[in-house]
Amino acid sequence: MPGGEQAKPGTEAQVSARPGAEAGARAEPIDLPERSSLRKPGGELFAAPPPPPAPARPVVEARPEPKPQAPPMPYRVAGQVSHEGTTVVLARDERVYLVRVGETLDGGYRVESIRPDGVTLVYTPLDLREHLAAASTLRVDPPAALAQAAKPAPVAAAKAIAPAQLRWQGPARVQAGNPFEVALKLTSDQAVRGSPLQLSYDARLLEPVAVRAGEFFADGSFTYRVSPDGSILVGAFGKGEVPADAEFLVVTFKPVRAGVTAELKLSSVALQDAAGGPVVHAPLAAFRTSITP
Question: SS3 for 12?
Fold first, then answer.
């Protein structure tokens, strides 16, 4: 103020009390009503359109897994021999096998059962069973073999076919302790490819030393089994050729007792042609030899 005078105490209070001065110095905040927030944009204005939905995948039905299978059966029934149990003759390619129930074959097969109508083999890796049918003509036992031999030979359109001829060849006398050979020979107008057969002898008088295929099966398959009860089971297959006078098989025996007559019988046989069919044969008497000291 002019003259250096100090303001009186009441002056400032009066100035502050004026409405204009108070509004200019202290502006009271004004409460505005709240605005509702705006929603966010659904997308960019110039964005690319969304891709179309992927097509539905076709429903693939689950297929059951194929059942395990055994390999193609390599064996076939070639014949049966009945003697204190049944032995079956099986063929595989050019080999033959003489087997009984419970025995195991090459390729993982086991013989489960043998019946007149065939053989049941089990493929052991998968425990799968397969039945091998056997024609009734392949069943071999002494009565059937004799009945078959007694039948007349079938007559062809042009000429009759004579039955096959089997015969023994061996010494009439032998010495005790000295081995000797007996050959079974065959002559046939028909081609003979194979045969299961059984030989019987008295084990108290003769001891088998060796069994071998004759020239008839020199290039084929030959299997045999000697039983201590006095029998020899043979399964053989050849090329189906028929030499004029061929050895079917040869057995070597050692005489055990002197002063007696020993016999060797063909207790059963089933000759087969190249197709596996039967070949009729004439009856064959037993081979006899006298054992001297």
Answer: helix
